[in-house]
Amino acid sequence: MKLLIQTTAILALTAGAAVAMDTVRMGTEGAYAPWNFLDDNGEVAGFERDLGDELCARAELTCEWVTNEWDSIIPNLVSGNYDTIIAGMSITAERDEVIDFTQNYSQPDPSAYLATSMDADIAGGVVAAQVGTIQAAYLAEQGVTVLEFATPEDTIAAVRNGEADAVLADASFLAPFAAEEADLMLLEETVLLGGGVGMGLRESDTELKEKFNAAIQSMKDDGSLNELIVKWEIGETF
Question: What is the mean pLDDT of residues 1-22?
Fold first, then answer.
């Protein structure tokens, strides 16, 4: 993570100041259902697609969707490959040193453990997590042996094949796997991490941040944000 911050800090020095945008490019991972994923047509779908389209409409912005791998999603925002991150990214002090965030559009989603046994050793065993996530950082802080993978699917595969005793990720991401596969189960222990999920932007794009903040607040005020949260089952409502 320190390397990520150093790299993006350097990129921030070379990135130009915010300018008026004809099209706002919405950067997401496209691999973290139900937050964001690719549908059968290869189009971005999920909670954040519905949310992002509505936010752009309310802010009177023309937007297009761009996908990017998670481990380089912050550097590529700072270097100008797209204009926002809307990818289930939790607001943390460490990330806020590099980029800016809107107000949160979801509450902190409990992080949960998925394993093949309710007796899985999550303290003394090996736990998988996606690289660059708050879950990976938390496991490292706890002194747990953590295996980091580039994609969330790889973390699940590590549990299936016995490479890891469990995986730690957002409960909303893990729950469908536990529901669909008899050999996978959610452990009782959960942990709250981060300050909720927000949109990431370059620190120079203050006007764009203000527009999205106003749009998010309007959705909170009229209840439409809560409707999307319930529809996609991503956590607690506001």
Answer: 45
